[in-house]
Design a protein that fits this description.
- By secondary structure, the chain is of the alpha/beta class.
- About 50% of the residues lie in helices and about 10% in strands.
- It has nine helices and five strands, in the order E-H-E-H-H-H-H-E-E-H-H-H-E-H.
- Strands 2-3-1-4-5 form a five-stranded parallel β-sheet, sandwiched between helices.
- The longest helix has 25 residues.
């Protein structure tokens, strides 16, 4: 573990967590993005993808042999049992890869773990500091529909499958308010960076 601390970064879908992670990386943090790792561990040719196909069937593959993520999402979101089956495959693989990246980070690294389901999976205790990127549900929905082009029903289902805003805020050591314009984000990220790197 880096001597500068091990940070857990989370936020509801559409809250802007990825933007905060990107800015922290630009400042020098080592960002361990569990979503990106989750994609890597089910890439074509991986044991992870083979396990997903064994569990969910060939129908979750696109013609090129890659995972149909939206299609799989429709199967698991709204079905706790199917979601648990998927998580049982993917989470251990993600954990192992994240451990490798953590071990490779330098002694003085600020490790920022980008963990979408930190509150849902009761992971706050794993981190020295939990940062929650917060936005009102209406803001999240607007961003998902307007910026990501997600159908409103899918966006509502995704949001409903995650922890509530109150549950996320309950585990936060630091809250970054991203309900407003991106310009309001910068001073908050810089203040957090100062806290993480200050003596």
């Amino acid at each position: 573990m880096g001597s500068r601390g091990n940070v857990g970064l989370t936020g509801g879908i559409g809250a802007g967590k990825s933007e905060v992670a990107r800015r922290l990386a630009e400042l020098g943090a080592v960002v361990i993005d569990s979503d990106r790792i989750a994609r890597e561990v089910v890439a074509p040719g991986t044991p992870g993808l083979a396990a997903v196909v064994a569990e969910f069937g060939e129908g979750v593959l696109l013609p090129d042999g890659s995972l149909d993520r939206p299609g799989l999402g429709r199967i698991v979101f709204g079905s706790p049992e199917r979601l648990a089956a998927l998580n049982a495959i993917v989470h251990p693989l993600v954990g192992a890869r994240a451990a490798e990246l953590t071990a490779a980070a330098g002694e003085d690294a600020v490790l920022v773990n980008d963990v979408p389901l930190l509150a849902e999976n009761d992971l706050a205790k794993l981190y020295d500091l939990v940062v929650v990127v917060d936005a009102a549900p209406e803001t999240q929905l607007d961003r998902l529909v307007r910026l990501r082009g997600m159908p409103e029903a899918d966006a509502i289902a995704r949001m409903g499958a995650q922890a509530s805003r109150a549950e996320r805020l309950a585990v936060a050591d630091v809250v970054i308010d991203n309900d407003g314009p991106l310009s309001a984000l910068e001073p908050q990220v810089l203040a957090l960076w100062e806290r993480l790197t200050g003596d």
